[in-house]
Amino acid sequence: MEDARRRRVVRGGGSGLGPLVNLVGRTFGIKGILALLVLGFIGWQMGLLDPAALHGGGEVREVDYQPTPEEEERLAFVRVVLADTEDIWSQEFTRVGRQYQEPELVVYRGQYPTACGLGDARMGPFYCPSDRRVYIDLGFYDDLEHQLDAPGDFAQAYVIAHEIGHHVQNLLGISEQVAAMRGRPDYNEYSVRLELQADYLAGVWANRNQHYLDRGDIEEAMRAANQIGDDTLQAKTQGRVVPHAFTHGTSEQRMRWFRRGLESGRIEDGDTFEMPYDSL
Predict the structure, then answer these.
(1) d(CA 123, CA 111)
(2) What angle is formed at CA 203 by the lines to CA 130 and CA 235, rounded to 5 degrees?
(3) Cα–Cα distance between 270 and 243 in angstroms, integer?
(4) Do 48 and 165 have their domain in common?
(5) Which helix (DSSP H) or strand (DSSP E) does residue 134 occupy?
(6) Does 5 reside within a domain?
(7) Could you point out which of 130, 136, 141, 208 has its C-alpha 20 to 30 Å from the C-alpha of 117?
(8) pTM for the structure as a whole
(9) What integer pLDDT is reported at residue 63 of this predicted model?
(10) 81 in the same domain as 197
(11) How many domains does the chain divide into?
(12) Domain residues for 115?
């Protein structure tokens, strides 16, 4: 695990697209600017353009940072959970005749450069398949407890297990197959399938820890899954639910697939891609 909390992205290393937009505007007018934006969007959809480049350059510098005792306690907890996922997924991959390659988890603050673009704490924890790293700003756990109303150690562990589930998908080639569908009208449906499968895989991990868990631990994970469903988040942030814009699945779906993984404990029982979308 990499502790990058003392490394911060400092702006000012580049000018971004500002000069190019100005040049296009002076030469071709508003139509030229619109064409540039369309090309940029297509480039992003095809994975040819790093969105971080739109904000200009920057550099990573060491800064003076003193973590609080509470944050250090969280860091120690994250280390324990990560090590446990490594043990469990190594065993599960061996069972199915494969070799597990451990990911790296990067703890950062604010913003941090990744192979998938500029990571931002406002995005929440995420997995980058290009560099096989999980990124998390520990401040997210404050949001999980106070803004999303999902407190508890096992709720925090579920978040990590979900992102490690994306690493498992990456190793199995599933993430690449879904990424190849980017730009299709039904891409969001495949994104939902991918996320629900990651919830299932988090449940598989929890299954192997059942001898340590009690009912309250499982309820914490289920509450976290419920609070980060697309329908719940959309209702909170925009006052209405837009199903065609879902990317992670509803609260009910996320809880259901975590529960399925918890009950099964087998990697092969979590295929979210074969069944009809409305049956997920």
Answers:
(1) 10
(2) 80
(3) 23
(4) no
(5) strand 133-136
(6) no
(7) 141
(8) 0.81
(9) 72
(10) yes
(11) 2
(12) 69-279
